[in-house]
Amino acid sequence: MTTTDTMDTRILEVPGAVLRYDIRGELGSGPYPALLLAGSPMDAGGFPTLAGHFTDRAVVTYDPRGTGRTERTDAAAECTPQQHADDLRRLIEALGVGPVDVFGSSGGAVNALALVAGDQGLVRTLVAHEPPSSQFLPDRDIIDAVCDDLRATYYASGMGRAMAKFIALVSLRGELPADYLDRPAPDPATFGLPAEDDGDRGDALVGLNIRTCTSYRHDIEALRAARTRIVLAVGEKSEGELAHRGGAALAVALGARAVRFPGDHDGFLGGEFGMHGEPDAFAAALRTALDG
Length: 292
Hints:
- The chain is α/β, with parallel strands linked by helices and 292 residues long.
- It has two domains: 7-133 and 218-291, 3-Layer(aba) Sandwich (Rossmann fold), CATH 3.40.50.1820; 140-211, no CATH class.
- The protein contains nine helices and nine strands.
- Strands 1, 2, 3, 4, 5, 6, 7, 8 and 9 form a nine-stranded mixed sheet that branches.
- Helix 8 links the parallel strand 8 (229-235) and strand 9 (259-261).
- Helix 2 (81-95) packs across helix 3.
- This is Alpha/beta fold hydrolase.
């Protein structure tokens, strides 16, 4: 039996970045593979509650490039799922404990699917929770255009106005109407956000990842052929939202149905970032999905 009372933080140099990752428990001990919890752009700070439900195995969390404690050493304007997938590959190889299980959340699910499509035999089971993928959605062209507009707004006007557009996008239930971009932009004050531009342009969500993540085109044939067991998961309380729709559509493309997990897009949170999901029930569902 391992514990999550102690945490070993390590550094991994990858092309264009220096990653920080944390190991709870003892790698290679116990009957279960190590469990890697991957978000994007959420960093390791979103996973303490979920990690605490898996004290019977080693749990690994990390800060993706452009987030948290990780340092970028390149000058790229965006981060791509392919880059993140390569980072994940290098991280798993650095662990040196054979195939691991992976839980990918949001953009982390997109990145983990890109990793598994390469099929290096590094992942036993992948649970991909609510990947915000437009690929198989009927309104994908509008979604991609909205994400382009979000990024352009960030670089032109700053975080407040871009995040207001982001919140409006991910909160909408159902297909985006054809005139979505013709509608008045939401007021940042509606969401408690400032309208003033603070000059920062380093945000991982609306600056580095939003466009490349949502518009990423998954290699469905490669995913079907991969040795990894893939489970697509969606929230019981997020039906109709972009990430839920994207996950459900990807599951169908893979010849399956998405598994419904408790809560919404953030169902595993237990107070991190001031948000509360249904972490106990979520962890139970994740354990069932991993052990399949």
